[in-house]
Records
---
Amino acid sequence: MDKDILTTAEAAKILGVSVRTAQLLIEGGSITSWKTPGGHRRVYRRDVLAQITGPAQTAIAASARVIVIARPERMADYEAAVGKVKYCVVERYTDVYAALLAIGSRLPAAVVIEAEPSDAARLAVLESLRSDPALGGTQILVVGGSAADVGMTRFIDGLPALPEAVETAIRGAVEPPAPFETPPSFPFPANEGQRLVALERSGLVDTPPEDAFDRLTWLAARSLDAPVALLTLLTPTRQWFKSRYGLDMADTPRGWAFCNYTILQKDIMVAENLATDERFVENPAVSGELGFRFYAGCPVVDPDGFTLGSLCVIDTRPRTLDDTQKQILASLAALASDEIKLRVTDRQLRRAVEHGTSRGSAAAAPARSDNKRDAEHRQGSA
C-alpha cells in the first residue's frame, strides 16, 4: 500500500517537479504540511494528489500568459491596456479559432474578449470558454458586458478597468511567497514566487553547456561588437549563466545581476554608462576588477510567460545600441525563449508518455492475473 505520509522528495516525484519546486509549494502553503520533531517537512499523499487533480493545480500550472481576442481596429487599444501589467505576456488574436487553438495548447492566466452581441462566432467562443471545465483556473474577462460575474467570468465596463483585472487574474493563482527572509537589496517582480517555481520547473539551472544556447551568445557578441554576452537565469541567490561568451565565471551573487532590472519589464533594458547610473555605480561588477561600463539585456521567457532571465551583452566602455542593434538583441532573446519552450514541451510529452505507459502496465497486471485464474479454473473443471 502506498504511504499516506510523504517526504518533500517523494511529493516532488509524484508531481513530476524538482525537489526545490516541491519545497516552494509546500513552504508557500500550497500543499498543507507539518514539521517532524527533527524539523523535516511532511505532507499527506491526498494533498499532493489534489495538486494534480483539484483546483489547486493552478499552483503548478500557473501562467503569466494573457490571450486577447478583439477586432483588428481595436487591438491596439487592448494591447496598450494589458501592456500596463509588466509581468504578463500578451498574445493577440483577431481570429477566434486561432485563439482557441492557443488556449487549448497551454492554458493561460486570463482570456480577454470583447462582448459583441452582433458577432455570433465570438459569442459562441465565449460560451464555449465559460463552459469548459479545463479552464477552471483561467479568468475570462469580458469587456463591454453588463451581466453579473459568474464563476471565473468577470464582466468589465471598459478598457480603463482592464489592467487591474488582468493583474488580479495572474496573481489570483496560488502564489508561493518570494523566498527572501529579509528584503533583498535588488528589485524583483511582484510574481517572484511563481517565477522561481517556473525556473525550477524548467530544469535548466546547473546543466552543462549546450550548443543551441552557446550559438546565441556568440551571435549576440559578434553581431553587437560586445566582449561579453550571457544567457542568465536568476535563482533566489544566484545569477547563473546557462551560456557565456567572454567571461570565465559561471555565476555571480543575485545582487550583482543587472538582469534584476531587465526581468521587471518586457522590452530591452539598456544602461549606457553603468559607472554613472545610480542603480549600478556601487555594483561590484562595475566598481571592482571586472570594470563593466555598458549593459543591454532582453527578457527570456518560458512557455507560460514567466521571465526566467535574460540574454544580454556587456562592454567595458560606455556606449549605446541603435534601433537595428536592439532588434538583433530582441530577436536573439526570442530565439532563446523558443528553445526553452521546445525543451519544456518535449519534457512534458515524455512525462505524459511515461505516465501513460506506467498506467497501462498497472492495468495490464490485474488482467494477466485474471486470465491466469480463468485458465486454472478451466483446467480444474476439465
---
Amino acid sequence: MDPSTLKQLNSQRSARRAVVLVTDLDEGRSHVIQETSPVEGPLGDAVATAFRTGRSATVQIDGRALFLNAHLPPPRLVMIGAVHISQALASMARLAGFDVEIIDPRTAFATQERFQGVPLHAQWPQDVLAVRPFDPFTAVAALTHDPKIDDFPLQAALEAGCFYVGALGSRKTHASRMERFVASGVSRADIERIHAPIGLDIGASSPAEIAVATLAQVIHALRTRGSSRVEKSDVA
C-alpha cells in the first residue's frame, strides 16, 4: 500500500468513518472507498454488502480478483438515562460487541455501584455531547421519560445521522414529543426516524425484556443501514 493511501485510510478510521480498502490482487494496487462515495455496477453491490455487514471478502469483478477490506468504526450505544432498562441493556450490548455509554445528570441514579465497568456521565447531555458528539455509527436510546433530559440528545442524534434513534414512552408521550420537536424546527421526516415506542414488538414488559427488544432493533438498524428495510416497532 502506498503512503498516501495508508494516510487516507488512517485519517478516515480516526474520524470514525466507514471505508472499504479495495486491493487488486493481480496488480497490488489499492484505493479507499468511503461510504458516501458513489460506486456503480457489480463493484458497487459488493462494496455496499461490505459496508452493511462489516465483513471483508475477495470478489471477482470484470475478470479481476479484488479484495475488499471493510473498516467500520466500532458501533456505539449511548443510553440516556441510568434506569433499570439501561442496566440490562448495557450488559447485553457489550456482549453483542457495542461500545456502551450512559448519560444521566441525576446523580442518585448515575452511580458506579449500579453500572460497574460502564462509562457513565453524570452530566447533562448537552455538556457531554459538546466533547463527545454523536456520529453515524452511534445508536441513541432515550430512556428517562423526562423531556428535559431526553429531548436534546434525541435532536442531536437526528442531526448527526445516528444509525438508530429510539425513545421510551407511549404513543401519547411520543405525540407530545413530536409537537415539541416540530415547534423547535425539526422536520417531520427526521422525526419519523425515531423508533417510539422503543424496541421490536415482542410484547416486552419487564426492563430486561424491553432491553432485549431494543437491542434487537438496534442490531437490525446497524445491519440495514442505508436501506429501507428498517421498520418501526409498536412496543410500549
